[in-house]
Amino acid sequence: MTTNLPAALRRPRYLISWWPWRALAYAGTTVPVAAVLTSGLLVVVAPAVAVVNAARQGRPVELPVVVFLTLAGLALLAAAPLVSAPVAAFERWRLGLVDARPLPPARRLIAGDLLAGLAARYTSAAAWREVAYAGWLGAVVPVAYWTFLVLVLLDLTLVASPWLVTGSDDMILVWTTVGTPREAVPYAIGAALFVPVLCYLAGLLAAGQATVARWLLSGPPADPSALREVTRSRARLVDAYEAERRRIERDVHDGAQPRLTSLSVQLGLARLDVPDDSPAAGPLAMAHEQAKELMVTLRRIAQGIRPQQLTELGLAGAARQLAGETAIPVTVHADLPRPLPEPVETTAYYVLSEALNNVALHADATRADVRLTQTDQRLVVEVEDDGRGGADPVRGTGLTGLADRVAAADGRLLLSSPDGGPTLVRVELPCPS
């Protein structure tokens, strides 16, 4: 289900959905707010422009005018954080018309914290982002809306031109002149065909405004759609980690596995010496089967420390094998021109394995893409799905474990997962040539 206007604009059925009407409602409710803010800005901006033009032309500027503009500018700057608070609150509510994804709530002033709240309006970055949005809404948005309105009026004029041309006087249509209704018909048809384009332009205008509103009113720290680094402590020593991994692999392969193989052989030989009708035959056979199963399990554990398919197929082949074992369709794009160092390759493999497992279990996705890109200095692993989004390392979806593993390799893990999707997991691992 589409939850925001930018995503709806990419769908082929946009014009026959409710989204154009929601964009129109968003634009319509923008007009009174922008008009009030523009009027307030004009009180200072219009005289300031006049003074600047007079100074450029060499005309004298009266001192009272300069004093008035200075005081008015200071008053506007002092009032801006207070005025922007209700504007931002209204915009957060109004944004739901074109974007259902939640925004972080604004800080509320309470009776016992009134002075601290007022001080925060002048010192916090969030408050000044709200001021920036109010200024953008009062200065930039009206220009865009007036430009679009001119296009609409021009298109309506062209559509109505066959009825406006009287035949006695010529009528100017944009770049040409027509004298009869017949001459105006082609322009009317072209303008009618341009109406769907205007609908898309209106949607793009509303979507752009909503995107700026979300960016400024949420801010970089709280914006889930921006790539953010999932960091964990990097105090774990990489050398100790790698040494311990190799020790475990060596102990399993050279110590426990041969002894378990010998035990299985001895139990098999004992079964040959015990008659089938003996009371010990049943337990002995069960012990023999359990020993063989344990040997298979131990072999898998030993191979899992350095996956066998990674050794045989390389990272690209192992990634395609993991994709084939995933419950949803997964497309793999690999651009790996050179062999990778073993630690980097192993880390990337486990990143892919865990990320695809998260997609299958938690994302409610229908497809996923895996991209492997190698440059001169690093390996980039990206896993993107079209699921519901909302992945959060705090909720224990395996991302913190991945971040630990990536940090141990001196890399970093980044996450983009807004509510409604898509989710992108990006891992960057140092891989010098």
Automatic annotation (TrEMBL):
Keyword Hydrolase: no
EC numbers on record: 2.7.13.3
Keywords linked to the UniProt accession: ATP-binding, Kinase, Membrane, Nucleotide-binding, Phosphoprotein, Transferase, Transmembrane, Transmembrane helix, Two-component regulatory system
Segments traversing the membrane: 23-51, 63-89, 140-164, 184-207
The Signal transduction histidine kinase subgroup 3 dimerisation and phosphoacceptor domain, residue ranges: 244-310
Catalytic activity from the UniProt record: ATP + protein L-histidine = ADP + protein N-phospho-L-histidine
Protein name, entry field: histidine kinase
Species: Micromonospora cathayae
